[in-house]
């Protein structure tokens, strides 16, 4: 080992000696902005519910009186074990059930091919999203982070980029001017909340935490396993039980449940755990974290001035 590297390691050990290195400071808690309509745009039927998704925030907005629409960009034909055509039908039905449980009023399916979206001309997908934004006039758009890194899923990358471009371009009258002829004039989206999985490596840094209550977390957990075609695999609980049994252990709450019901319970616990973990990291009981792009994003100097100078009356 080189001498400079030894010195560097010594400094790191000295900084971290006795206690763990300092954890990141809590994120600011985000308030629900003004407005009343939100639009969730995701590649797949279940992307809103998982541990990096917006399930709890959706429930929180609905509880505050907001109305929402979910856009499912692909037809999910490869997601499940029932064959392409049947998977599409099942996953669409379960997407409607899961989003309805969270309080979303409508699911729009664009029906692009699952895991084959790299072949889509980017401007076609973007134009579809611009039209939807102009028609629905959302105050909030949620999706994967267009600038997120290390996401191996090509559909995630494709849709996220199209969403980022559509949010920007939907406010320009010279972009797709034909939309105005069908009653969809330009619309500027004030707020976007982007999520991204962060377990592949550095590159995504959330800037806001959204506090949730226990009931919203419970709805999020149930919406997760309502995607039964891809989530309720009885082997999940069966494998965990077998490993515990080999060590003479058990989970009393799972006794008397069949493997499918036990899997439901395990997945609800998992979603509660991740929400509690995000909460503890940010000084509340439950939370989700996002990269929030606010209404002053185009004029960062003005945003900074307002943050420093605006005071209550």
Key features of this structure:
313 residues; alpha/beta; Rossmann fold; 2 domains; 7-stranded mixed β-sheet; 43% helix; disordered N terminus
Notes on the structure:
It is a single chain. The protein is of the alpha/beta class and 313 residues long. The protein has helices spanning 3-16, 55-63, 84-102, 122-136, 154-169, 214-225, 228-231, 234-246, 259-281, 300-309, and strands spanning 37-42, 67-74, 106-112, 140-144, 191-195, 208-212, 286-293. The protein folds into two domains: 37-212 and 285-295, Rossmann fold (3-Layer(aba) Sandwich), CATH 3.40.50.10320; 219-280, no CATH class. A seven-stranded mixed β-sheet has the order 3-2-1-4-5-7-6, sandwiched between helices. It is globular and about 65 Å long.
Order of helices and strands: HEHEHEHEHEEHHHHEH
Radius of gyration: 22 Å
Can you list the strand order of the major beta sheet?
A: 3-2-1-4-5-7-6
Strand content: 5-15%
**Arithmetic mean of pLDDT:** 85
> CATH superfamily of the largest domain, please?
LmbE-like
CATH topology of the largest domain: Rossmann fold
- Overall domain count: 2
Helical fraction equals 40-55%
**Biggest beta-sheet profile:** 7 strands, mixed
Distance between the termini: 62 Å
CATH hierarchy class name of the largest domain: Alpha Beta
Low-confidence stretches: 1-22
Helices, by number, come to 10
Helix-strand makeup class: alpha/beta
């Amino acid at each position: 080992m080189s001498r400079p590297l030894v010195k560097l390691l010594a400094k790191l050990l000295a900084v971290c000696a006795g206690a763990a290195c300092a954890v990141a400071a809590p994120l600011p808690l985000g308030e629900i902005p003004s407005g009343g309509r939100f639009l969730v745009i995701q590649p797949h039927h279940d992307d809103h519910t998982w541990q990096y998704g917006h399930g709890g925030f959706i429930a929180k907005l609905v509880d505050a009186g907001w109305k929402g629409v979910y856009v499912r960009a692909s037809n999910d034909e490869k997601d499940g074990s029932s064959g392409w055509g049947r998977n599409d039908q099942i996953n669409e039905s379960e997407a409607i059930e899961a989003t309805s449980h969270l309080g979303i009023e409508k699911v729009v399916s664009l029906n692009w091919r699952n895991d084959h979206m790299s072949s889509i001309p980017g401007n076609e997908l973007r134009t579809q999203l611009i039209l939807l934004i102009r028609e629905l006039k959302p105050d909030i758009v949620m999706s994967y982070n267009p600038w997120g890194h290390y996401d191996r899923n090509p559909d995630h990358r494709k849709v996220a980029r199209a969403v980022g471009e559509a949010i920007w371009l939907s406010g320009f009258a010279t972009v797709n001017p034909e939309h105005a002829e069908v009653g969809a004039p330009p619309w500027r989206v004030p707020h976007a909340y982007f999520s991204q999985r962060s377990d592949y490596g550095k590159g995504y840094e959330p800037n806001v935490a959204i506090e949730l209550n226990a009931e919203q977390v419970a709805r999020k957990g149930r919406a997760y396993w309502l995607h039964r075609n891809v989530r309720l695999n009885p082997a999940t609980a069966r494998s965990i039980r077998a490993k515990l049994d080999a060590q003479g252990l058990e989970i009393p709450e799972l006794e008397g449940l069949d493997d499918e019901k036990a899997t439901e319970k395990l997945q609800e616990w998992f979603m509660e755990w991740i929400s509690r973990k995000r909460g503890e990291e940010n000084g509340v009981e439950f939370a989700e974290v996002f990269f929030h792009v606010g209404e002053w994003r185009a004029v960062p100097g003005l945003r900074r001035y307002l943050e420093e100078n605006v005071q209550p009356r």
